[in-house]
């Protein structure tokens, strides 16, 4: 006959759960901060932090008004981050691997601006 003592079974499951899970495990997705600064005043016109999608095929897209008619479109996928300026400058694209190496600065931003992508920021609550 098998042992069906409820306290034994509860203790056994409790012990197994301690062995199987050593604390809560969270996956913290990577983040990237878009900073667009006006060179003449050092004023940050855009300073936004976004999550990078974890799932393949997922995308985060945001559009930011910089000044007057100049707007930036930020597109983030699992593999890359792209910033487009509606034809005012070359598209700035950084792979996830390049971003892991640290801050990336656009080589050809719109005239009078500095554009940076900075990994590891804390997103604001929506």
Topology diagram in text:
Elements: H1 6-20, E1 31-38, E2 43-51, E3 59-67, E4 70-77, E5 80-84, E6 92-95, H2 96-100, E7 104-105, E8 113-119
Antiparallel strand pairs: 1-2, 1-8, 3-4, 4-5, 5-6, 7-8
Structural commentary:
It is a single chain. This protein has a single domain (31-119), classed as mini-chromosome maintenance (MCM) complex, domain 2 (Sandwich), CATH 2.60.320. The strands form two sheets. The protein has a four-stranded antiparallel beta sheet with strand order 2-1-8-7. The chain is built from two helices and eight strands. The protein is α+β, with helices and mostly antiparallel strands. 13% of the residues are buried. The chain is elongated. Strand 1 (31-38) and strand 2 (43-51) form a beta hairpin.
In terms of DSSP E residues, the strand content is 35-45%
Strand order of the largest sheet: 2-1-8-7
Question: What overall geometry do the principal axes of the alpha carbons give?
Answer: elongated
Count of the domains: 1
The total count of helices amounts to 2
What is the arithmetic mean of pLDDT? 83
Low-confidence stretches: none
Biggest β-sheet description: 4 strands, antiparallel
The CATH topology is what?
A: mini-chromosome maintenance (MCM) complex, domain 2
- What class would the helix/strand composition place it in? alpha+beta
């Amino acid at each position: 006959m098998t042992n069906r003592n409820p306290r034994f079974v509860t203790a056994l499951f409790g012990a197994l759960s301690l062995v199987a899970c050593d604390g809560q495990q969270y996956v913290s997705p990577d983040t990237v901060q878009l900073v667009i600064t006006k060179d003449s005043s050092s004023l940050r016109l855009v300073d936004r932090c976004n999550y990078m999608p974890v799932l393949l095929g997922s995308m985060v897209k945001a559009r930011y008004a910089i000044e007057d008619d100049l707007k930036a479109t930020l597109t983030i996928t699992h593999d890359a981050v792209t910033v487009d300026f509606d034809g005012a400058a070359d598209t700035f694209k950084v792979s996830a691997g390049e971003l892991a190496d640290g801050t990336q600065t656009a080589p050809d931003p719109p005239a009078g601006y500095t554009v940076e992508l900075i990994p590891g920021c804390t997103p604001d609550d929506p």
